[in-house]
Amino acid sequence: MLTLTTVLAVLLLILSARAGLTPTGPGPTDVFLAGSQCSISWLPDPTGTWTNVTIQLMSGQNLAMTPVITVVQDLDGTDPTQSPYNWTCPEVQPYSAIYFYEFSQPGSDSPAWTTRFTIASPNGTVDPPEYPTQPSGDATPWGTGQLALSTPSNTTSMNSTLTLPELDGNSTLALPTATPSQSGFVKVVQPTATTVLTWVVLPVSSNGSDTGAADKVALALASDVRELGWSGPLAGAALLAAAGLCIL
Fold it and tell me: Where is the signal peptide (predicted)?
């Protein structure tokens, strides 16, 4: 007959074999301002498996999570010096307690997640989560977040500007190659816009890896751009994008 000590030892061995990276923060009471430093912490993987970790900012319900942005890739989750990881929280829509991080490792049994936390506006305002409970009935508030479109008042740091000629209602225009600024945006201006385009900001890679991606973008008319998931002063224009630059 197995003794209690033997059973516990076996259980510990099983748990140790299945152990991996364990997220520890942020927690449900943590609030980070958009544009400020945000920290992510975890206990390192003791098995030596999680050596190529991707961390994504996520939102959505428990059984239908949606990525907001990739925070970091190729992170060694076995190295204790990597935690905490600090990055700049982006401006998002909505500012609410609906965000969490997902840790994934190729070949692992399952991703790992933090609890939900709050990203607040730069001045600290926060909206309540859109849904008070999960579709399953679990009392965990949630909502779907996305990166916020910048407004003209935020374009002073942008160093890449494309000026477009006047377009008629049936025109599309392929944009030339543009190098993104370090802030990660390219500003597009239509100077005589009435029904086509007033302005739009295209998010691109802040590390420059997507330089030239703007030539895959075209402009077209739309009756109501908000139906396509955009918000902001977009004067009846839709932005059609490829290669994951902007997903409508």
Answer: 1-19
Residue 66 has pLDDT above 90, yes or no: yes
Of 192, 194, 197, the closest CA to residue 217 belongs to 197
By the 8 A CB rule, do 146 and 68 touch? yes
State the SS3 of 192-208: CCCCCCCEEEEECCCCC
Q: What are the residue boundaries of the structural domains of the chain, listed by start?
A: 19-147, 152-240
Q: Per the confidence metrics, is the pTM higher than 0.85?
A: no
Cα Rg of the chain, angstroms = 22
Contact (Cβ atoms closer than 8 angstroms) between residue 66 and residue 59: yes
- What span, in angstroms and rounded, lies between the C-alpha atoms of 182 and 179? 9
CATH 2.60.40.10 fits 19-147, yes or no: yes
Pairing relation of β-strands 37-43 and 22-25? antiparallel
**pLDDT tens digits, residue range 101-118?**
999 999 887 899 999 999
DSSP 7: H
Q: What is the DSSP string of 97-114?
A: EEEEEEEE-TT-SS-EEP
In this structure, of 96-100, 164-168, 210-214, the range with the lowest mean pLDDT score is: 210-214
Give me the phi and psi of 95, to 5 degrees please.
-80, 110
Start-to-end Cα distance in the chain: 63
Q: What is the pLDDT of residues 211-224, one digit of tens each?
A: 443 333 333 333 33
At 169, the amino acid letter reads G
Pairing of strands 31-33, 117-120: parallel
Paired tokens of 9 = 């030892």
d(CA 220, CA 231): 16
